[in-house]
Amino acid sequence: MNKKVQLKRLMFSIESLVDLGQEVSSSKELTEKMKAALYVMTGIFPVPTAALFLYQPHRKSLDLLVEKGRRDKTKKKIKLSVLPEYTKRFKMNEPHSVRTMARTAFFRQNEDLFTLLQTTLFIPLFAKGELVGAIALGKKLGGAAYHAADKDVLRVIAHQMAITLHNARLFLELAKKASENKRLYTSMQRIYHDTIQAFAAAIDAKDDYTKDHSYRVASYAVAIARELGWKKNDVEGIYIAGLLHDIGKIIVDRNIINKGEKLTAPEISEIQKHPQVSYDILSKVKFPWKNIDHFVRHHHERLDGKGYPDALMATELSEGVKILALADAFDAMTTDRPYRGKMALIDAFQEVMNCRGTQFDARITDTFFHVLRKELSGAAKESHILPHLQGVDVSGFKGLA
Amino acid sequence: MTPKGYINDLGAESLEQTSDQFLGKGVKKLVVNFNDVQYINTIGISIFTSIVQKTMEYDSTLCFTNLKKVHRDVLEMMGLIKYVKVFKDEEDALSFLSEKR
What we know:
Shape of chain B: globular
Strand content of chain A: 5-15%
Radius of gyration of chain B: 13 Å
CATH topology of chain B: Transcription Regulator spoIIAA
Shape of chain A: rod-shaped
Structural class of chain B: alpha/beta
Largest interface: A-B, 27 and 24 residues
Order of helices and strands of chain B: EHEEHEHEH
Strand order of the largest sheet of chain A: 3-2-1-6-5-4
Radius of gyration of chain A: 36 Å
Helix content of chain A: 40-55%
Number of domains of chain A: 2
CATH superfamily of chain B: STAS domain
Number of helices of chain A: 15
Strand order of the largest sheet of chain B: 2-4-5
Distance between the termini of chain A: 93 Å
CATH class of the largest domain in chain A: Mainly Alpha
Oligomer: heterodimer
Helix content of chain B: 40-55%
CATH architecture of the largest domain in chain A: Orthogonal Bundle
Largest sheet of chain A: 6 strands, antiparallel
Strand content of chain B: 15-25%
CATH superfamily of the largest domain in chain A: Hypothetical protein af1432
CATH class of chain B: Alpha Beta
């Protein structure tokens, strides 16, 4: 080869290495990226057949990732067995002539595959001292031998491809861990919700009349918060607050809760302690949602400042508190109580409307009945209120809607 | 076969697949017209290398036509030219192939 041609070849090799750099650093999916890299590599010499393997440490095998040029593609799954003791004998990113490997156990174990792939050179790919893959190169076009200069170029390419495979593996491991963490998080979240629901059921069990009260309040609160456009995590927070808002009732005497006649002043005072107790219990819990303790503490507050325990005014009440207050009161109206039967929906509606602006926030009230109307007309995608109004006379309200 | 534009990515694999199909069906004479090819890089060379190799394995004849000088120089430098017949245009290639048995 004269000097001019040699120089041209050199320039072409440099251009090819630039192409390779672009391919391995591209945002393509790994298989496509490595296939392009293999084509760049085989275009330099040029080589008609080649294969690239990915090392699978748990299987102790080099699994075919991409290949080119093989005529007989009947055999699909191609894996080279690599026992750990072999890997120690490999020279990192060094082209090994298959002829010189003929006596090794590694070659003998994989001889059929080397023949199938017409392998002349085998290059084990190492990154950070670990086997990450391998390249099997066929003969050069026309059968010419690989020169020392060719092997120099191959070492450079092998190094780049090894780093790419290593990075891809790290990324895959990270993605796997992230997926595992997500699964664990979902599972823990489910356990968390189940536990909270069990607590809610325990609270409600104290009152013969209010079975599932907390669950219904939570559902109504979710319906309003969603309609108001709350973020998913905040909706979840108001749901949890709904489930736990009455947890403070555990300190109230069961006989007071279930008393079928008018409560005495001391009994009223006793029962009015429950929001504060709920707050005392829940403020010690580090919830992944904001303001749970604040919501439960103030769910008996009113816009006009006549609520308890802090007699806050409208401007001091958050949207969450206003939602919970309405949801709680509405459920009390539409379920049987020791001192009266459940109200018809139209009556509950009138009662709430009478207190709109004094006890209940106007926007929250309107939103709640808007959602209820949508559910009654079948326009809502999901029903959060209607399924809980079993046995409640809705006919009058329907007519009104 | 009439490749077009840039032969510089895996999109050009379709050329190899087309030639595989022809050779698999027993076609013994293939012509590649380079008239509309603007650029060939190493990936392109790699693809043509496989086509050349398989043509030889199938004992078929491969002709390249309408090669620009820059492309001819690259193919020559990479040692592909000696395994193919090069013609000025398709007409010459077809004339040669019609005489060839």
